Amino acid sequence: LPLCDLIELPFCKIIRIEAWNAPPHRYFIAYHSRDEFSHVLGLSVIDEFATFSSPIFFAPAPILGKIYNVGITLGHKRGADLDIDSGWPPLCIGTNEPAPELPADFENQMMDAIKRSSGSPLPAQTIRDFQVQFIEIGETSVFATNAPLFSGQLRRICRLTDTPFAIAISTGNRLTRQKDGNTNEVHAVSEAVLRDLCSHIRQRTL
Amino acid sequence: MRMDRRTLLKLLPISLLSSYAGGTSVVPFHARRARARELGIRIGTMQPGRWNAITDVPGVKVGQTTLIRGNGPLKVGEGPVRTGVTVVVPHERIYDEYIHFGFHILNGNGEVTGLTQAANFGILASPICTTNTSSVGMVYDAMLSQFPSNERQLLPVVGETWDAFLNDIEGRHVHAEHVIAALQNAASGPVAEGCVGGGTGMICYEFKGGIGTASRKLPGPLQQYTVGVLVQANHGSREDLRIDGVPVGEEIANLLPEPDEAMYMNSILIIVATDAPLLNDQLNRLARRGGMGLSKTGSISSNSSGDFILAFSTANRIKKEEFWNGTTPYALQSIEQFDIQPIFQAVSEATEEAIINAIFMATDMVGCDDHRVYALPIDRVLKIMQKYHRLFPKEERKVAAL
Q1: How many cross-chain Cβ pairs, A to B, lie less than 8 Å apart?
Q2: Does B20 lie at the interface with A, CB-CB under 8 angstroms?
Q3: Rounded to two decimals, what is the model's pTM?
Q4: Min CA distance, B107 vs chain A (Å)?
């Protein structure tokens, strides 16, 4: 099961799971917001479907719209209909840094970095049989795991940290397009396993 | 041998429970009424299941205890009593095999217990009960006694609406034995509607309301699945009532409850069941569509309402031990998002029809202090529907009633 890479550019960071043009699919995701954190674009689809399919972009809040626009470009190139399993909407999370001087070709730099997959894997730890990755970017905690967790379980992981914003993603279930009433088979871990994961993550984040 | 209350309740046979209820009627209330579809009113375009009831979803059972006793002036603790309890049993082994569960609160001035747990775990582990507002604690307590002891417990799901216009609500006449009786008489097949169970004393669009139900068979590739809805309807102002889009409430301005008091404590409980394989996030989405069916009957979900929509899928059963302590992941099935659209339509249609059935099947009722609530005058409604060209030709009625 895939884990997350981190692509770092001078003006933004990008968390990426797979090749930018992977066939349509979605992963479960959840978030938790506290205080007055509000610099996020792309949350409505998460609220509705509990899944995401785009890279996750982090950038200073004043340039978030420009970054979002690149994410949309990426989505259009991936699929003409910009479906929720083909990169729409881009999930863009603001940081508190001042607005950087954006190079004229920042869009191309982002696209090239994503297409070349020029990132490095986030550090991972093994808990029970699963890999768990954790990183803080700006005011946001990011948890990623290949443990099969539903969004409700991921939401509980998000609440373990006291950063203003947290997201948790699971690559343990890959929802692909089905037709004619066919189903996706998905998996979930027990409460006991989740408790272990939470306990470990809490120690790691405190 | 000393026996605790929990054990005693499990052992009591239903016959004993009936006599234990003293002078209370614990039998369904029957009256000569008809359901909307049987009279030529067609809600939506999808076909209902065999019973046009929540029990069309395989495994789902409904049980009810109806309490009607006494007349005249309100004496708190004595009556008049016009209330009861309704239970929806998702499947026989619900305490041991959990199912996915979602909900939506359209307006939160009400109570449904267990929703925090549903938000955290996304599952249902007990039957769902509906009753009057003040009886939630007693019903909750009775349901708790049904859970296997000495194990980590999930919370019962008990919802309420307010029946004080007709019922001695402060007297709290719903007791544990009534809940147990409803559980024991839970069955598949046709469901009693109108002035029964938790809906006994309820008022809907200022006509007599109560329990209503309907179902829809899903079309095309989902045809093996069914959506069923049961409502406890106690909401709405008369002028808002619409039946299949027809402004029936505007057309029938009289027959208001007597004395004519403004009744702002209006709420509805909507329970959606399906055997389509859906996960709890998808069931949350289904629940929201229950609100669409409600709005089609005219409700705007008033400021003082407790309008709750609960949705469960019986398709994925998670063994209790697996859910709590499994060492390896368990597998579930999930319909993909591109196939979910007809399920939304089914929820909306079945909710709308369940509400209409509740008022079609309810009868006149006189309760506390001789308060009177009139039943929907069916003959007048049919004339109004005809005037608006919303009655089926006779030859189509047979199909509609199937």
Answers
A1: 89
A2: no
A3: 0.91
A4: 19
CA distance A153 to chain B (A): 7
- Helix (H) or strand (E) holding A44, with range, is helix A43-49
The ipTM assigned to this model is 0.91
Phi-psi label, residue B6: left if phi above 0, alpha if psi -120 to 50, beta otherwise: alpha
* pLDDT tens digit sequence for B176-214: 999 999 999 999 999 999 999 999 999 999 999 999 999
Q: Is residue B212 within 8 Å of residue B357, measured between CB atoms? A: yes
Nearest alpha-carbon partner for B252 in B392, B390, B393, B382: B382
- In terms of Cβ atoms closer than 10 Å to its own Cβ (0-12, 13-18, 19+), residue B292 is middle
Contacts of B333 in chain A (CB under 8 A): 183-186
Contacts of B120 in chain A (CB under 8 A): 152, 156
The partner residues of B212 in beta bridges, in order of sequence, read B231
Say if CB A87 and CB A47 are below 8 A apart: no
Q: Do B281 and A152 touch (CB under 8 A)?
A: yes
CA-CA-CA-CA torsion sign (B217, B230, B64, B279): positive
**B323 contact residues in A (CB cutoff 8 A):** 190-191
Cα(B74)–Cα(B309) distance, integer angstroms: 32
**pLDDT tens digit sequence for A56-86:** 999 999 999 999 999 999 999 998 889 999 9
Residues with Cβ within 8 Å of residue B147, at least 6 apart in sequence: B95, B125, B126, B153, B154, B156
Closest residue in B to A128 (Cα) is B327
